[in-house]
Amino acid sequence: MLYVVGIGSGNKKHFTFEAEEILNKVDLIVCYKGYKKYVERFNKEIYTTGMTKEIDRVMFALEKAKTLDVALVSSGDATVYGLASLAYEINYKKNFNVEIRVIPGLTSALIASSLLGSPLNHDFVVISFSDLLTPLDLILKRFKLALEGDYIINIYNPLSKRRKEPFIKAFEIIRDMDIDRIVGIVKNAGREKEEVKITTTKEILNNLNYYLDYIDMNTLLIIGNSKTKILDNKIVAPRGYLDKYRI
Ligand SMILES: C[S@@+](CC[C@H](N)C(=O)[O-])C[C@H]1O[C@@H](n2cnc3c(N)ncnc32)[C@H](O)[C@@H]1O
Q1: What's this model's pTM, rounded to 2 decimal places?
Q2: How remote is the CA of residue 218 from the centroid of ligand 1, in Å?
């Protein structure tokens, strides 16, 4: 059996009861080497691989899951830019016939949202700026459509040391649309060195080099919609109650 387990930020408080239960009972845990520290407390055999070795990791987990109970661990939720789909795809393509179960986890947008206030309390979209597997044109097209639709936008994989172009081009779209939106930036949500910043798209455009340096692959951005406001230093996306009802 293969359990594809989301572990939230990796912080114990963000593991679900079900994730705890599964990780306590499996024979083997497979994960990215950076997440080993989050699952060592289960005292299981752990197999790790590095960044960009996702296919090897999933193949290994599926091979082992033919005879053992295996947990393939993802940060956040395994179905949000995680390894759950790849596990289903390889299992199907290679005829492994392994039974797969996904165990939900707290995705980083939700942890970030709670730290920022209530920025996701209306229609939102989730976009990854990584152009490793998705063409940049498509990422930018979706981003522009989300802005035109006045959605709240969660940005995963915003930029890395070597991959800054999608972020720069996306912010050029905002500049060309001549709009300004509130932005929440959360780094290392739920982890050591957690940082929360509230700013605006204009401020980011005016200090682009600073933000290109500050934001990294452990950062999640939430861009508000046109109704998003700041109340008591928190980002609030109104649901609309107080426009409709008197209090
Ligand atoms: C490949 S995606 C994995 C997302 C993960 N499956 C989830 O549900 O959160 C990696 C991106 O998620 C975001 N992320 C993951 N963990 C984070 C954290 N603790 N704090 C802030 N952002 C995080 C970052 O944008 C990072 O570049």
Answers
A1: 0.97
A2: 6
